[in-house]
Amino acid sequence: MNKIKPFNKPIYIIRPILPPVEEVYKKIREIWNSKWLTNFGEQHKTLKLELRKYLKVKYMSLFCNGTLALQLVLRALELSGEVITTPFTFPATSHSLYLNNITPIYCDINLNDFNINPDEIENLITDKTSAIMPVHVFGNPCDIEKIEKVAHDNNLKVIYDAAHCFGVEYKGKAIGTFGDANMFSFHATKIFHTIEGGALTYNDENLNEKLFLLKNFGIKSEEEVLIAGTNAKMNELQAAIGLLNLKLVDGEIEKRKKLNEVYKNKLKDIEGIKCLEVKKDVKHNYQYFPILINEKKFKLNRDKVYDEMRKFNVFTRKYFYPLCTDYKCYDGYDSAKLPNAKRIVKEVLCLPIYGELTYQNVKKICEILISLKEK
Ligand code: T4K
Fold first, then answer.
1. Burial profile 204-223: b = 16 or more Cβ within 10 angstroms, e = fewer
2. Is 298 in the pocket of ligand 1 (CB under 6 A)?
3. 123: which DSSP letter?
4. b/e 141-164 (16+ beta carbons within 10 angstroms → b)
5. Which of 115, 167, 214, 285 is 20–30 Å from 137 (CA)?
6. pLDDT of residue 1
């Protein structure tokens, strides 16, 4: 019998940062007084300014969510044919290609950081390839130098899915400054959020107008509609929540950094458990805490661990199971050439991490996990 008692309340993988509700009331009053609720008002303007400073990027466009941002940047860059991407990601990455009639070509991933393996990209390039779309999985940057060299040598665009990367820096450079464009998600489950929301960052000024048109029905002025755009604007309430949350995000990252250490210390000698190493030269944001569970060594497989942890009120997540190649909505993909992705997707489990968790909570989560091995 396991003597550890379940948590009284569910421990989720993530809990959003929340500004004091009085500050939210104040913001709402400001917005109510202005009677300006959406379509690029003061909150939107200020948030964009503040975020550009925080993320140290040249240009930025805000969106109602990250998925539409990703879909629209593919149109803005006029991509077509095939795009090389990773099978180990959230559906939005791959769907953004499908929804643009682009064929995703899946490249295998590295075993150490779960990111696209840059050494395999070149083999997948055909005369239809227009771009590479890597994901900085769990906020750990890809091998940017290698990816950009392949892209440069083959005249391909690079769009980074940086959904997990708020505030991340690589070799002293802000993560949103690389490639042709970067997408950040500001969903409630992200370290910085606007409830729902997202942003694109880029270095080419020309994208400003294209993206504006694409997210605003193609409307240039009251009497001019230039393209068949959609509606993907961020509204004033979203932007206001973003402004309030921006004041909290550094504190949240600090708290998570400490919790990350507690996890690492508790789990470092457990046979069959491997924690994701934060890469050298990276300023991390601790968005997720993924581990790998080796069934042979841990004597229990990942799925069983997931089920058992739930009995203790701990809701871990199998991000990103299943692989995109195994989605029922896509026609049969052969994943035989993706051995690393196939392995990682069976072993990965994200443990709860958010600033509100106490050290004691994290220690207990580790004790529950370790007790499963000893069962
Ligand atoms: N690219 C990548 C690589 C991504 O990971 C994502 C999104 C995107 C693109 C697309 O960006 P967005 O269009 O979303 O901006 C969640 C998020 O909804 C999703 O944004 C995120 N990735 C993904 C990794 O996680 P689910 O289906 O796991 O969410 P859900 O509702 O199960 O929530 C997870 C846990 O969070 C809950 O168990 C409890 C907690 N939670 C959730 C919500 C919504 C809260 O405490 N409060 C909340 O309001 O997708």
1. eeebeebbbbbbbeeeeeee
2. no
3. G
4. bbbbeebbebbeeeebbbbbbbbb
5. 214
6. 60
Cβ(13) to ligand 1 under 6 A?
Answer: yes
Work out the widest C-alpha separation in the chain, in whole angstroms.
Answer: 73
Q: Whose CA is nearest to atom 29 of ligand 1?
A: 189
Q: Is 188 in the pocket of ligand 1 (CB under 6 A)?
A: yes
Residue 76 confidence (pLDDT): 98
Sort strands 157-161 and 181-185 into parallel, antiparallel or unpaired: parallel
| Residue closest to 238 by CA, chosen among 199, 181, 183 | 199
pLDDT at 375: 64
Given a cut of 90, whether residue 332 has pLDDT beyond it is no
Give all domains of the chain, ordered by start, each with its CATH number: 21-246 (3.40.640.10), 249-374 (3.90.1150.10)
Predicted confidence at residue 112, as pLDDT, reads 95
Phi, psi of 129 (to 5 degrees): -70, 130
Q: Could you give the CA distance from residue 130 to residue 127 in angstroms, rounded to a whole number?
A: 8
3-state secondary structure of 101: coil
Host H or E run for residue 72: helix 66-76
How many angstroms is it from 187 CA to the middle of ligand 1?
6
Tell me if 162 CB under 6 Å of ligand 1.
Answer: no
Residue nearest atom 38 in ligand 1 by C-alpha distance: 12
User: What is the pLDDT of the chain when averaged over all its residues?
Assistant: 96
Q: What is the pLDDT of residues 230-283, one digit of tens each?
A: 999 999 999 999 999 999 999 999 999 999 999 999 999 999 999 998 888 999
Q: Nearest-5° angle of CA 291, CA 88, CA 207?
A: 120
